[in-house]
Amino acid sequence: xxxxxxxxxxxxAFLAVLLAPVAAFAQEPGGANKYSVRTWAxxxxxxxxxQGVLGGALGQGRxxxxxxxxxxxxxxxxxxxQTPMILALALIESLVLLSFVIAFFLQSILxx
Length: 112
What we know:
The chain is mostly helical. It has a domain at 43-112: F1F0 ATP synthase subunit C (F1FO ATP Synthase), CATH 1.20.20. It has three helices and no strands. The protein has helices at residues 2-24, 37-73, 78-111.
């Protein structure tokens, strides 16, 4: 009985997976599709901004922590550590802004 039940469940799951793509292609050509390319591009732009900001924030945090640790271990080297740290933070921030600009370009190109 248990074997029959697992076969029935397996068959139903197989048919569900097999027939799910058929519904995706059932739409008539030229019809309104809520999952259009523009919708996915807007979602991609949002993910690009989110990942860019998250990566930049993590990178800036690690850079600042490493610089402060280096300064605390050797206070005499503070001037030599501070300048490269500020340059690195500016370059990290430029990458975050670049992802922001690319996301806006994607949004403006696809919106019309």
